[in-house]
Amino acid sequence: MNELLEVLKYTLPAVVVLLCAVFLIKSFLKDGLDKRRIEAKSKMTDEILQIRLQAYERIVLFLERISLQQLVLRIDDAGIDAGTYHRLLLQTIRDEFEHNLAQQIYISPQAWELVKAAKESVIQIINKAQNDMPKDVTAFDLASKIVELKMLEGNKQLDDSIEFVKKEVRELF
Description:
Helices cover about 85% and strands about 0% of the residues. By secondary structure, the protein is mainly α. It has a domain at about 50-170. The model has no long low-confidence stretch (mean pLDDT about 90).
């Protein structure tokens, strides 16, 4: 029995020290891992914020590029008929939209819905101008009618979309 007590005298403190060491090392490693996770998450958040800002920039650029004034100025109407010009305007809008389709991942669903509505409102104005014109007019005549409709009706949907996107960007900061 004395021998058992002697063995316990030496092994029990060693076991206690070992358990304390294991506990301390485990908590130290856990703290280090938590710190690295927080740093990685912070870095990822910064990168995602940068990507989101770029997406908002691209969306505003898209909205500006499909504004009626920009479309009419950018697309050359020399030497083509109104029907061809009409198709060219609509194709340009669709191409711009498809080019920016992936941006919906980074912006809010409300902003994306407004962007789609703005695109559709621009298309409606172009279609209305085309429908109001006789069939044998020039592209210049159609462009003039589009600008006239824009002046008369405005495009509140497009302006509201741009403002909403700008508001969302301000909320990020």
